[in-house]
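Table 4 source record.
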Amino acid sequence: MQDIAPLIPPLQDNAYLISLIADITGADRSDVTERLRQEHRYHPHAVPKAYAEKGLERYIWSQELLDFYEETDSFIYELVVWNRSQIKCTMRRWMLDFLQRHRLPKGRILICGDGIGADSFFFAQAGYEVVSYEVSRYGQQIARRLFDDYKVNVQLAETLETFEPESFDAIFSLDVLEHVPSPPDMVRDLSKLLRPGGFFIVSAPFYGIHPQWPTHLKCNRKYSGRTAWLEQAGQMKLIDGNPFGNPFSLQKIDDNVQNMFSLPFGKRLSLGSGKVFLHFSGVFPALILNIALLMHQSDSQLKRLMPKLPSQHAAGERPNDCISEIFVVQ
C-alpha cells in the first residue's frame, strides 16, 4: 500500500491556506497571516481569546455556546495548527495502522466532528470510503473547499439521521465528546450506525477544564480516564489505544466471537496506568496544559510551518496553479 503522509498536502501549503481562509471568512490576508502566526506561537490562542471577547461563561452548555460555535471563525486557526502538529500527525498515523492491523485495509468510515476535514482527507487518500460530519459552518466550508480543490472524494453529511443502522465499518469521534452535554447519549447514537465487529476510535480530553479550553464542559470531567461508560453506552469492548487516550479504540460486540479482538495483557497495563493519570489530571488540568505547552513549543514541525510572509495568492486560485512553500513530512 502507498505510504500516505499524515500531514496532508493542504496543511503543508501556507499560501493556499491563507488564501482559502481569507476567501471564506472575508478577512484580510495580512490579518489571517498574523492570526495563524499567533496560533502557532501560543496555541491554543484564537478560541479562548474570542470566547473572552464575547464575555461568555466558560465550561457550561448554553444557547450562547451554540451560537459561538456557529458564528466564530476562531476554530479554523486552532484546527489548522492542531492538525499540523506532530502529536496529531502521530495520532493520525496510529489510527491508520490500527485499521490495517485489525483487518480493515478498506471500508466505509464516518468521521464525526472533523472540523476542517483533515482526518477525512487523510483516510480518503488512504483508500477508504469516507463520510465527514461537522456542525460548524466555517468548518464545513473549509472542508468542502479542501476536498474540491484537491479532488479528494469525501461525502459531506448535513445530518446523521439519513444513514442506515450498522452501515459503517469504523466511526471516529476525535475531540468531540468533551463539548457535548451528554457523551453517553452521543456514543449510543453513533454505535447504532456501526456494524457489529466494527471499530469506534475516540479521543476526548475531558480533563481540560481550564481557561485555555473554555468550550469544554465541566459536567463531563467525571469521564476523564474512564472507558467503562463507553463500553456500556456503545455495547463495545476496549481492544487497543495509546496510554493517554490519544486515542482509545473499541470494537462493537459481535455474536460471532471469531470477529472479535482482545486486549493484550501488556496493553491492558499501559492503558490502565494512562487512565489513572488522565483521571487525576481532571483534578489538576494545569498539569496537562503545561505538558501540552511544552510539547507545542518543542514541535519542530510547527516551527517550520509557521507563516513567514503574507500570501501572494489570488483568491480562488487552485493549489496546483500556485507557487507555494511546501513542507513534506513523512
